[in-house]
Design brief:
Number of helices: 14
Distance between the termini: 32 Å
Number of domains: 3
CATH superfamily of the largest domain: tm_1862 like domain
Bound molecules: 5'-deoxyadenosine, iron/sulfur cluster
Helix content: 25-40%
CATH class of the largest domain: Alpha Beta
Number of strands: 19
Strand content: 15-25%
């Protein structure tokens, strides 16, 4: 019974929540297994951002139960749990725990009740809580990147989005507690930190000590930290000092993910995004005016209710004007509880499919041009995967681009190598190492060994 298996769906926030859930379970005396068959307790940390993500969870539950479910206990946690609540017990009666992310601080109590034989245990807080989930027991399973949630929840209420209903209201941690965690992460051997929040730059220090930009600078100055990333930024709260601090602090990565969602001001209004195309483009202009070559990426939704051909054309011209290095394009998917659920989902599926294909094709061409500038450049790469079957190592540039490269020795995960770019693909670069890889600290090597034991489960891109 005290052996658990966890599977994570969805975004990086979810992946990091799983690290905290795993830490809590280990602290409660549970052992993690990488094989569902060996587990007494199976947890699915779920995503409900689009209907496909949600269906996947129910499919997974049914499939597993049919094959091997006997005698096992199931917990559905995360966004589908918060969204569907106790309906999950009706649909899948063998589930014992249904808990949303804002209730994880009560996990020890829920586990005790489970062990005492209770069957319908809920942790459903919706938008009531002011608390954040304690990070004391976080089990870090990413071998090269330490995640820190600086702000939970969302108060923006975009018309299409389920997050304000699944993750509760916006609540930031104090900058002092974020910095203390950054120091612990650095001491345990990580050199890269990613700050997380649904709207990371809506961060508001409850102690009033630091702005988001000042917090970025302070994390970037933590001893031992070489790279700091942050996702996801909301254009509404994207201030000029964020660009200035990237220019000023070398450890902050050259990358801003700034989802626009649509290039049409009319659609942005219907989406309740609270900015116009021109307002967004002004933020882009600041970023492009930086001294550093800051890579820009975005999320885009096609087929929002009422989106005309003309509106869609505005998205394509915006893509061209910004020249993103990558986008995540999605077909609009109606979500329960959201304001847009009351609008007619007026764009036929085949038009959505067509628009998404046009969007992705245009973006591919843009990337081909953008990436060409990297030919012959030398970039410091952080190693993320050892050699593949062709002997190539995979790592990432500060701009978050994937680089596959050859190297005389196989460098350790988390080490840094200078790579000369020799070939360009639309979404990756190929090169050769021109320096010896750095040697990770003994703490980093110990951390990597620990991670290998607990079977990291990378979250999918959403
Ligand atoms: N339909 C389609 N895409 C959505 N996203 C969020 N909600 C929806 C929805 N209902 C996209 C947005 C967001 C990304 C994480 O997922 O582009 O930025
Ligand atoms: Fe999915 Fe949004 Fe929940 Fe992340 S916060 S898991 S993207 S629904």
């Amino acid at each position: 019974m005290k052996t658990f298996y966890i599977e994570t769906f969805g975004c990086q926030m979810n992946a990091h929540d799983s690290e905290k859930v795993v830490g809590t379970l280990l602290n409660e005396g549970y052992t993690q297994t990488s094989d569902e068959a060996d587990a007494g307790l199976i947890l699915y940390n779920t995503c409900s951002i689009r209907d496909k993500a949600e269906q996947k969870v129910f499919h997974r539950l049914n499939e597993y139960k049919k094959l091997h479910g006997e005698g096992k206990r199931f917990a559905v946690i995360g966004c589908v749990a918060q969204q569907e609540g106790t309906k999950i017990f009706d649909r899948a009666p063998y589930v014992s725990i249904v808990a949303g992310s804002s209730s994880y601080r009560n996990l020890p109590d829920m586990l005790a009740r489970l062990e005492a034989g209770e069957t319908r245990i809920t942790g459903l807080d919706d938008r009531q809580t002011d608390e954040t989930f304690d990070t004391e027991f976080t089990a870090r399973t990413n071998p090269h990147r330490g995640y820190i949630t600086i702000i939970e929840g969302c108060d923006k209420f975009c018309a299409y989005c389920v997050v304000p209903y699944t993750r509760g209201k916006e609540r930031s941690r104090t900058s002092a507690s974020v910095l203390a965690e950054a120091q612990r992460i650095a001491q345990s051997g990580f050199t890269e930190i990613q700050l997380l929040g649904q709207n990371v730059n809506s961060y508001h220090d409850p102690s009033g000590k630091r702005t988001f930009a000042e917090l970025l600078a302070a994390v970037g100055e933590v001893n031992g930290i070489q790279r700091v990333r942050f996702t996801t930024s909301h254009p509404r709260d994207f201030t000029r000092d964020i660009v200035d601090v990237i220019d000023a602090v070398p450890t902050l990565c050259d990358h801003v993910h700034l989802p626009v969602q649509s290039g049409s001001t009319a659609v942005l209004k219907a989406m309740q995004r609270d900015y116009t195309r021109d307002w967004y483009l002004e933020r882009i202009a600041w970023t492009k005016a930086a001294k550093r070559d800051i890579s820009l990426t975005s999320d885009i939704i096609v087929g929002f209710p009422g989106e005309t051909d003309r509106d869609f054309e505005d998205t394509i011209t915006l893509l061209e004007e910004v020249g993103y290095d990558a986008i995540y394009g999605f077909k609009y998917s109606p979500r329960p509880n959201t304001p847009a659920i009351h609008m007619e989902d007026s764009i036929p599926e085949e038009i959505k499919v067509q628009r998404l294909a046009i969007l992705n094709a245009r973006q591919r061409e843009i990337q081909r041009t953008n990436y060409a500038r990297h030919l012959n450049q030398i970039m410091p790469i952080m190693v993320e995967h050892g050699a593949n079957s062709r002997g190539q190592i995979t790592g990432r540039s500060t701009q978050n681009k994937t680089v596959n490269f050859s190297c005389d020795s196989v460098p350790a995960i988390g080490s840094y190598v200078d790579v000369r770019i020799t070939q360009i693909f639309p979404s990756s670069l190929v090169g050769e190492a021109i320096s010896q890889p750095t040697t990770p600290s003994p703490a980093a090597i110990a951390q990597a060994a620990l991670n290998a034991r607990v079977n990291p489960q990378p979250a999918e891109a959403v």
